[in-house]
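User: quick one, sequence for these tokens?
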């Protein structure tokens, strides 16, 4: 089965940015229109777009809704959206405007019973993605600004949800995110031992086509790429072709 190349657009204050290891103090801003960028990804053969509202992730509620809706309606892409999605009212609204998948992380980790209820709710069944962001093997939340030593491990979390009707789990090694240092293949392999039939999407560290080739040997559903695209070290169309 083909693996999806999923380009990422991270939005802060209406602009396309990338953070280094999730640090809001280490931001690179790109002079590109996010709507035009999404259209270009569709033209390159992508089927999905990974869209993150960084203001929402930090503040606990989506903050770039007008722009998000414009991207959804302008690009012929399936959009998975994350950042500040912590209530069922917000979830209903985002699905109503055309979002295909909703990525939940902070409340999913901190309020497991609520998350379980939402995952099994008919309104959201098969539409929710667990954003599993790990620092030193343990879950990090609140836009990656919070991560403590007694948080559950990535493996523990995956084992607890692998039989739920989730759309997927996105695994991000925060130490690799935005670094172009290469993916953490060993950690991804280890996590795959615990996922069962749950689709796993890899995120973090991809820099070049060789990284895509290395990852495609794993039984994963998708590869999220951000900075490598913006820095020109990975050609989107070439990467899509490699994964077909």
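Assistant:
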């Amino acid at each position: 089965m083909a693996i999806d190349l999923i380009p990422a657009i991270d939005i802060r204050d209406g602009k396309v940015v990338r953070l280094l290891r999730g640090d809001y103090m280490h931001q690179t801003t790109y002079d590109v229109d996010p709507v035009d960028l999404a259209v270009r990804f569709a033209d390159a053969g992508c089927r999905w777009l990974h869209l993150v509202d960084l203001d929402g992730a930090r503040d606990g509620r989506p903050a770039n809704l007008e722009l998000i809706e414009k991207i959804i309606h302008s690009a012929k892409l399936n959009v998975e959206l994350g950042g500040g999605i912590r209530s069922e009212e917000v979830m209903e609204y985002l699905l109503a405007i055309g979002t295909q998948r909703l990525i939940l992380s902070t409340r999913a980790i901190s309020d497991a019973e609520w998350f379980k209820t939402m995952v099994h709710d008919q309104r959201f069944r098969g539409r929710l993605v667990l954003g599993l962001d790990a620092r030193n093997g343990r879950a990090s939340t609140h836009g990656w600004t919070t991560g403590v030593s007694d948080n559950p491990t990535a493996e523990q979390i995956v084992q607890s949800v692998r039989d739920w009707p989730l759309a997927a789990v996105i695994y991000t090694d925060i130490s690799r995110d935005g670094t172009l240092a290469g993916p953490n293949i060993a950690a991804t392999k280890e996590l795959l031992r615990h996922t069962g039939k749950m689709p796993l999407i890899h995120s973090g560290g991809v820099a070049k086509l060789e990284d895509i080739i290395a990852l495609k040997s794993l039984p994963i559903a998708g590869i999220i790429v951000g900075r490598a695209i913006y820095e020109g070290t990975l050609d989107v169309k070439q990467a899509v072709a490699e994964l077909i």
